[in-house]
Amino acid sequence: MPMEKISVAEARKIAEKKGLKPGRVEGTDGIQFTRGKSERVTPIPWEEFEQLLKRRRLAVYESDGFLKVMKA
């Protein structure tokens, strides 16, 4: 199934069902979804996540419940 671009609101619903949170990868400017248990990824608020997506021209893509942050 191909990855489809989705809104942050849709991503939030899917993430919450799966126990995921947006996060920033330590030591980089990368963002990704996390369960909050990783030392490498620090959870961030959804508002900050959305601002980073816009600033870096990224979007959330989904395929069969799998979420990925990629270039828009």
Question: Can you describe this structure?
Answer:
By secondary structure, the chain is α+β, with helices and mostly antiparallel strands. It has one domain. It is 29% helix and 38% strand. It has two helices and six strands, in the order βαβββαββ. It has helices at residues 8-18, 46-55, and strands spanning 4-6, 21-25, 31-34, 41-43, 58-63, 66-71. The strands form two sheets. Strands 1-5-6 form a three-stranded antiparallel β-sheet. Strand 2 (21-25) and strand 3 (31-34) form a beta hairpin. The longest helix has 11 residues, at 8-18. The radius of gyration is 11 Å and the shape is globular. The model has no long low-confidence stretch (mean pLDDT 94).
Describe the structure concisely for a colleague.
With 72 residues, the chain is an alpha+beta fold. The chain has one domain.
Give descriptors for this structure:
three-stranded antiparallel sheet; alpha+beta; single chain; 72 residues; 2 helices; 29% helix
